[in-house]
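Quick start: what a row looks like.
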Amino acid sequence: MTNSARSSSRIARGGKAIYGAPLGILMLEARFPRIPGDMGNGTTWPFPVLYRVVSGASPEKVVLKGAAGLLPDFIDAAKDLVRMGAEAITTNCGFLSLFQKEIAAAIGVPVATSSLMQVPWVQATLPPGKRVGLVTVSGSTLTPAHLEGAGVPLDTPVVGTENGKEFFRVLIKAEKDDMDIAQAERDVVEAGKQLVAENPDVGAIVLECTNMPPYAAALQAEVGLPVYDIYSMITWFHAGLRPRAFA
């Protein structure tokens, strides 16, 4: 290698405010605890991430009210993350699949708004006669538009956690700031068991809610099926941003 080649290989490129964290996460504005495994807990990720809270985007507005009027706020926040240094954007609510096309068109970097986007990939792995089922925080408000936004078949079976004792009322109804983790886990596991009991053809489960990864292992152990969530999707997403360099 010539001296000039050695010199050029040592040039650092600028143009961003923050380096080493190529993934930006758009966060809802909430006060409930974000335990390890939750998308909003920085220790969940095996790589650095950038966070941006979207002011006024409460879980209730996004999950129960269709995120009405919030698209401009999400686009502005996504642009802020890109200006900071993000090379790709995701969000911490699966219901934001409604905004997948609009955010992707507006910011010019890869966007993955929802864990639901995994459904076609997971379906491709299953044997004939089996299909993907969904566990969501709110089955009653997960509409065909949400499914279409993520490329999910409209006949996909769905069960929500509305009938549970803890998970839904803490995350969506914001009835208190603290959370009984064991009861939240039971709520998610019971929803998954109901999904499988009512739909024997379910061969794998995708968890819509980005607060559910802490309970994915318990659900998988209970039902004996593969369980995918936002953690599985975003670790895949990030792998394309920073592929492993093999010696």
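That is the whole record. DSSP finds ten helices and eight strands in the chain. The mean pLDDT is 94.
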